[in-house]
Amino acid sequence: MKPAPVPTVFIIDDDRGMRQAVQDLVESVGLRAESFATGQEFLSRQPTSNPSCLVLDVRLPQMSGLDFQRRLTEIGMQIPIIFITAHGDVPMSVRALKSGAVEFLTKPFRDQDLLDAIQQALQLDRAAREQQADILDVHERYQSLTPREREVMTLVVSGLLNKQIASEIGASEATVKIHRGNMMQKMQVGSLIELVRMADKLKLIPLK
């Protein structure tokens, strides 16, 4: 059995002592850690496919942590963020959390509070990666369908019976049954409920 990948905690803080302290704390509980002085250094690294999260200082040179959070959203990089700061206020924390941050910790904070936030962030990232892999798998199955099978799938999930589908596409009911059987096999589903769930993941729009 393949061992579970070791999660990585990325740390961005221009204070070298703080970076090292957080890295030592993270590694003390068996997690990987990589630290950076700026957001640009972080973006220059090789991407990881393992679960990860970001411990991000609010005050950074060149670009603030909040602006960097927005930048990550703009480039489509989804990673759970834990903010740390010695100069936080309520509006700042509200802005960070509304933008999707997992936690906003004010220095000095308890080691356990940071570790708890990191575990929460990593769990969120694991769940997001599993969901993304599941959706990708469904898309690959859908791509294996012929154009006619895709048409039949859309009509099936819209609630039409084989006889109605046959009338809709101008084919015999027997032909529809063949297309439907092939489609169900390729989508690897055994019931209409499973197929509807997949159609929802594919964001298919039922024909009216």
Q: Quick one: how many beta strands?
A: 5
* Number of helices, where a helix is a run of at least 4 consecutive DSSP H or I residues: 9
Q: SSE order in H/E notation? A: EHEHEHEHEHHHHH
Strand order of the largest sheet: 2-1-3-4-5
Cα-atom Rg, whole angstroms?
A: 24 Å
Helix percent reads 55-70%
Tertiary shape: elongated
Low-pLDDT segments: none
Q: How would a textbook summarize the main sheet? A: 5 strands, parallel
Report the sheet-strand fraction: 5-15%
- Let me know the average pLDDT: 90
Instruction: Give the N-terminus to C-terminus distance in angstroms.
Output: 47 Å
The secondary structure category is: alpha/beta
Note down, in words, how this protein is organized.
- This protein has nine helices and five strands, in the order E-H-E-H-E-H-E-H-E-H-H-H-H-H.
- It has helices spanning 16-28, 39-43, 65-74, 90-98, 111-143, 147-157, 162-169, 173-187, 192-202, and strands at residues 8-12, 32-36, 52-57, 81-85, 103-106.
- It has a five-stranded parallel sheet, with helices on both faces.
- Helix 6 crosses helix 8 and helix 7 (162-169) crosses helix 8 (173-187).
- The longest helix has 33 residues, at 111-143.
- The two termini are 47 Å apart.
- The model has no long low-confidence stretch (mean pLDDT 90).
